[in-house]
Amino acid sequence: MWGQSCGDLYSLGDLQPDPSSALHTRHGRVRGRGSRGEAREELQGCHHLLLSSTMKDTACPQSLRPSPPRLSQQIGDKVFTTNTVTGGYAEYTVASQDTVFPLLGNLDFAQGASIGIPYFTAYRALIHKAQATPGETVLIHGASGGVGVAACQMARAYGLKVLGTAGSESGMKVVLGNGAHKVFNHRETDYVDKIKEYVGEEGVNVIIEMLANVNLSKDLQLLSQGGRVIIVGSRGPIEINPRDTMKKEASIIGVSLYSSSKVELQQSLAALIAGNESCWLRPVIGPRYQLKDAAQAHRDIIDSQGASGKMVLMMS
Amino acid sequence: MWGQSCGDLYSLGDLQPDPSSALHTRHGRVRGRGSRGEAREELQGCHHLLLSSTMKDTACPQSLRPSPPRLSQQIGDKVFTTNTVTGGYAEYTVASQDTVFPLLGNLDFAQGASIGIPYFTAYRALIHKAQATPGETVLIHGASGGVGVAACQMARAYGLKVLGTAGSESGMKVVLGNGAHKVFNHRETDYVDKIKEYVGEEGVNVIIEMLANVNLSKDLQLLSQGGRVIIVGSRGPIEINPRDTMKKEASIIGVSLYSSSKVELQQSLAALIAGNESCWLRPVIGPRYQLKDAAQAHRDIIDSQGASGKMVLMMS
Q: What three-state secondary structure class fits A136?
């Protein structure tokens, strides 16, 4: 699908405008087994908020104060946030001004709700941490979820050779439809050998890793000289051989969006606005849940057999 | 001892000039248990050579060709190398011109033989990889061996807060005498708690790690936000929790001196020449062995109970 006009880009996805006025979302990258404690932690890190056009100023006093010209928000503006003070599973919330941004022009609420964590995290992983450069090869491990799709689109737009993995046929289709040159099924026992064969001796320069407790040791085998594994997600411990980092002078680097400085958030936003203008930023929405079904959404994210776009919680 | 005049700096060590004209050395940082295979690998990575004043030009044709002005070597010059083509356990060897450097002014052969791997590795770890900056705190884990002593001296000279570990009283004395503000005995069961108490909540910015298979998991607990563990040595696998890297956005970075570019080697050399001029570069020599006792030296390095300076193989 990549390379077609903006209008055709997401014919694989369900991108109908959503009528709801406020959305809380989580992203679909969390899958496989994990304790409830781990799941809660993942989900708490993935709250998003779209302030509705009917939002009262008493509900979000900070987020509605005027901010620098380009990013100023007025009461009634459509906005999204990367973080909240009072929590995201609610119709009204409080967010700090520096984490609230205007909803990018042509996106609906469901897509807007998919920007805050996934695209900002993808930018932080790929650019701020991996410092990926055009011509490098990136493997996005778990590419069909919210962060994965964002990373695929971004990496392709920035001139990288993009490999992705997914765990289902529909997920693989999403990955290929969003910028990946090649996709692998990580449920196949020999998929690592297939990646090795595909990239040859040079290896992979950057790996964006959503499930490090399963993949990290194998990741180190796939890396190029000077390669970087960026840890976006992990659900437990794993045994690695530190010597695997030495000869290649490889790096393992953790990512936390909440550690971003204000300047870094503004850099990311500027890049994402440009990505929206030039059509590569197009969130793919996966399963939608009503707020009352949040518990079921949690169970599904733990037991997921493979993501296909970003999961969204609806407010109405 | 730190802060005294150059002449007094190493009163703890044995720095008598050595009469030998060519030395092959290994450094004393390798200790604890390991297979013979691993030990061989360590030692093969630690060969040094001092070309003697009686060296024949037929033996080292490349290394004796004129090179850029500041670094030019003539037949008969005292030099050291960071690598050899034909191996270091011999009286004569061949080395590539870009790995041969003039012996720094006031150093004897034994000290000169301790520069090639330890100081270049310390520079690569601390500056090229960790990008340590003045005011940061560095923990040098295994600070009493060749690389450890070099890292202590360098880090102190560059304005870092220097913590070191050693496994014996004599080793701890060496560490304190070579730049560390504080030393811990890593054979004490609660030494990690003591380090935590010493550095407080801020944690350690950089850890130079000589035995990652034992320490890496604990290292991640000690790190500051944005902290870096630099893997200089490891003898096997270890279980870590990748989540420990995420919240702090910590990095684990492997180091291999042999991956240095020519430009990087020249940068390191320039820094080390300056370090010699300003007196902070003063190699500490540990046990000395005759070449015929190389096998025993290997056994001792495996079974070492704690290093106290760099081990040296003598040619005469």
A: coil
